[in-house]
């Protein structure tokens, strides 16, 4: 991993750090929440497929917090390690070397949340 020691801790910290935005920019945050809900709602693509796409974009965009949030969602949605690794291959194809480095971080996030789900 890079400077991230725990994706679970990172997602908790980011969620906490978003609190002032929820308070001071409630319309923006509610709008973003509605956008997220609409974008991820099952349609022609199911929610898991959409989360795999979101994770691939998070890898290509090199967004640490995105890796944590989408890995957690993918574990909840039952993504298999094989599905996850195939998605990482597409992300690396689209983003090159920098995405390869973030693919390693995404795998670490997925493994962390998978281990926590198995322990629960």
UniProtKB/TrEMBL annotation:
Carboxymuconolactone decarboxylase-like domain segment(s): 26-106
Molecular function per GO: peroxiredoxin activity
PANTHER family: ALKYL HYDROPEROXIDE REDUCTASE AHPD, BLR3452 PROTEIN
Name assigned to this protein: Carboxymuconolactone decarboxylase family protein
